[in-house]
Input
Amino acid sequence: MSTQHANALQAAIVAIIGVVILYMILSARGGRELFIRRIPGLAAIDEAVGRATEMGRPLLFSTGLVGVDIDTLQALAIAQYVSRLAARYGNRLIVPAVDPVIFAIAEQLVREAYTAEGKPEAFRSDDIRFLSSEQFPYAAGVMGIINRERVASTFFFGYFYAEALLLSETGQEVGAIQIAGTPATTQIPFFLASCDYTIIGDEFYAASAYLTREPTLLGSLVGQDIGKALLMLLVIIGTATAAPHLPLHVVSQWLARMLHPGG
Amino acid sequence: MQARKWAIVAAIYAVSGLLGAVALWGLTHLLSPVFRPATGVAFGLAIAASVVLWIGLIAVIHRLPAAVKKRIVVTATFVAGLFYVLEYYLPAKSAVFFWRAHHTNPFSPMIFTVGDAVSVIFGFTFFLAAFSLSLVHGKSIAARRPGYHNSIAFFVAFIMMAVFGLWETYSPDTTLIHHIGWIRRVTAHQVYDHLFNSMYVPLTATLFSVLSFYMATAAFRAFRIRSAEAAFMMVAAFFCMMGQVPLGMWLTHNLPLHGPLSHLRMEAMANWTLGVISMAGLRAVTFGVLVGGLAISLRIWLNLERGAFFEQEL
Output
């Protein structure tokens, strides 16, 4: 079985975007001030944790259905922020895990958050639990936890599949404030319909930069924006030269051939 | 001064990347005579030796200072990422990059083996998962918490699926019941088949079917015309939904199949909305997601990730 390899144009695009991201990271580390706009879903995290504390009901954080992946690592970074808040307010945070490795990381992460806030005795190891690595058993487990524990706030960050609507509608039934963020474009509409705040697409990857204001992360975010602008330029060039009667039609054909997977 | 410093860092990464690539290539040539397919006793000895080696390695790493452990993790992350970067971005065949016979990419044949190795590592975490589940449900039964009967059901299901799953894999034709009353013969395969196809699959299908009802409730709650944008979305959703069902297609079935008026057919409008307008937005979001994924991958690979657990001592 053969594997796919990048051609020259694909490698060049990734290299250019990578260099731009690295340059902006170094620039931010050098003291350059960078602006990040307000993201309502992320700004509402504090409100959601505070509301749950006032109601005396726990929080629930789901990291999605994928194992150790960049999406889940990003979700765990947000989970760490939420767990620090929960520990500070003395509230419970339930983290159902879909993968044993995620379970181990999440347990360590939440335990250290409670310890860092000076409340190690408030940490309950039973609140971080592995449910199942299968889709609907995991969904059934989370739905059961939401109903039994009557959670006041739910956080769905990570890569979700069809179970997204099951989880968010169950949260709606118990009256929880819900914040969701996923790079899964197929599940964004369902989260938009059933959650109070939804973080779309690359706002999910901006979350760690937004919450921590770390210069490295802010610089990376600006580098991503420049990278997207470069991709937009390619799209415009390809679209503008797509008409067959144009002399530059060969440019569009070349771009389509080179950017096709396996091309 | 700052630029010079980071130029030196970039040069160090480039040199270590080159050395890492050479080391990876050399390591595979050194180890390939050792790791040959084995059977029987040799296979068992190879497994036992690997387990002992890894336990020893983990014990040694556990005793190292936190700074050294972090350096090991950073180096292993860089080398592992370097393998996949070199395999993908170097061509399959090149006389410029590869000087050995046939000029083929030396990393490509290894990619499936490396993937299998990663799967084996994740397989060890299965015991962690089983232990965690048993602990939680065991405590629930011991403390007689409300709903502890569900924890009893968990243990029954877990043990039965594990036992009959293994039985079905290694000896499916084993007879469990032979001529009792009206039961003629029951094999391990039949029991497993019943547990999986007659119990597990319908249960998951039931939960999946609940999705359709939740879609209706979510749509009823979300599709409220409170603003101009909401009204626009409602109209677009109406056309998209009507274009998917026979009733919607029947409404415009009198329009011709070809020509300008064919674009006003319900299914044509639905397909255009989904395939052109909606697809453009979906692809725009996908662009952002992919660039964001590239940025995070770069940060983790080059040890630039900050915040959360990336700066914690191990």
Summary: Residues 78 and 208 of chain A are 6 Å apart (CA to CA). Chain A touches chain B through 79 residues (CB under 8 Å). Chain A has two domains: 8-34+214-259, 40-212.
